[in-house]
């Protein structure tokens, strides 16, 4: 099996490349290194089944592959809002290019969609049939609407051209190799706690998120790619829901930090609640997360401790 992973030098992509190699695949990692890094995949470069291509998916590329995981897209609000027009191009033109490749070489293609397609959800927990509550003109729209169009493109290439597509909606995922500077809550809080700096809770911290460890998520991606006769969309995430304030307290306790919690302005359109309903993933893929949040956080804290020393 020759497998292409776009965004393969990023946080989730690097874990996916590693697991695919372990499973015996030939892996082509394609990345423009906007938010990913060679350090994330440095340990894979010596493997003769691994190949690295520096390329931007908004430009077409010709490759012969059996499977495509389309993960290329900045994922943290700080990074996707840095150049919002580029973020839209990556999700729209990039996905068209990858779907064109899938059509030409008859590859199965999996799109990394997101819980952001549900926007600031009025249905809780979120099930796949919910159409969402997304602001089309706000500062998160470049990401949310880009990912929604990418889902549309997947289904239209499927209906119009018979492309074999898979759509997964990924909920907040964390673990080693998250970028130190990406502004996401897990990396921010752990780094602040380890440095003894103030922990920055946005708003009053009553908004909720549900955090999934990256190894569990990768198992779900591979299960979905291997599943015949099911396009999705399917939610992948850990239903263990927490308020952001509770999460800050947990990080302080797990790191043994003396940091104080401070409250900062809540960014516009920040979703108030988020929790995946993973019934469908259980039924169709036999998948559910295995790593308790406590354990995953300990591993992630160890990783960041190593990076800061
Ligand atoms: P990440 O930023 O670490 O990885 C994204 C990778 O894509 C990076 O290596 C980046 O350099 C690359 N990239 C960006 N634009 C590109 C382009 N135009 N051409 C080629 N490469 C490009 O983020 P991540 O957390 O690993 O996310 C991976 C995927 O999963 C993304 O599509 C993201 O939207 C999705 N996702 C992630 C989460 C999460 O919590 N981590 C949640 C929902 C969805
Ligand atoms: N957040 C926070 N402090 C930070 C970074 C994020 O309180 O230093 C909050 C943010 O406002 C949001 C939640 O944590 O409510 C998750 O933010 P993240 O950027 O990790 O992901 P997303 O909002 O895309 O789920």
Explain how this protein is built:
This protein has a single domain, classed as 3-Layer(aba) Sandwich (Rossmann fold), CATH 3.40.50.720. The chain contains ten helices and 13 strands. It has helices at residues 11-22, 38-41, 77-80, 84-105, 141-161, 185-195, 214-226, 244-255, 279-285, 293-308; strands spanning 2-6, 26-31, 50-54, 67-70, 108-114, 165-170, 173-174, 199-202, 208-210, 212-213, 234-236, 241-243, 261-264. The strands form four sheets. The protein has a seven-stranded parallel beta sheet with strand order 3-2-1-4-5-6-11, with helices on both faces. The protein has a two-stranded parallel sheet with strand order 7-10. Helix 4 runs parallel beside helix 5 (141-161), helix 6 (185-195) packs parallel to helix 8 and helix 6 packs across helix 10. The model has no long low-confidence stretch (mean pLDDT 98). Residues 76-77, 172, 184-185, 188, 200-202, 207, 209, 244, 267, 270 line the site of uridine-5'-diphosphate. Nicotinamide-adenine-dinucleotide binds next to helix 1, helix 4 and strand 5.
Distance between the termini: 39 Å
Quantity of strands, as a count: 13
Let me know the largest β-sheet: 7 strands, parallel
Q: What is the CATH T-level topology?
A: Rossmann fold
Query: Would you identify the regions where 5 or more consecutive residues have pLDDT less than 50?
Result: none
> Which homologous superfamily in CATH is the superfamily?
NAD(P)-binding Rossmann-like Domain
When the domains are counted, the total is 1
**CATH arch. level architecture:** 3-Layer(aba) Sandwich
